[in-house]
Amino acid sequence: MQLLTTLLSCLLSLFGSLDPASTASITRVAGRDGDALFSKTTLADGVATFECFASASGGCHYRVYEEACAGVPATMAPPVKSAADACSRRTLDVFALDVGKRREVEGLPAGFRHCVAQDDAATCG
User: Fold this and answer.
1) What is the mean pLDDT of residues 51-56?
2) pLDDT, mean over the chain
3) Quick count: other Cβ atoms within 10 Å of Cβ 96?
């Protein structure tokens, strides 16, 4: 009976320790005096969390967009394109965060993309 209880406890502990699936993207640009830019974006349970850890300008500037390429599903669109590619971008959101701040965004489409810059998100991609 004690062996059965131990096995059952071990089995139940496996189910309790599962974390929800998530995806993280880290952008880090080193400068002469430390990080010129350090940002993290996490997607978990349909919520995207943008965090600004460091920026030489005092803030992180984000552009969230959706990219569509002719004949290619959005989730498979290449991140880098040549001028010959038939891809278009639709901006979903543009915002800035001060260092140490975070923002959560719900309802973004599957396969959304983002870029972050220390000065102006318009310079992204």
Assistant:
1) 94
2) 79
3) 19
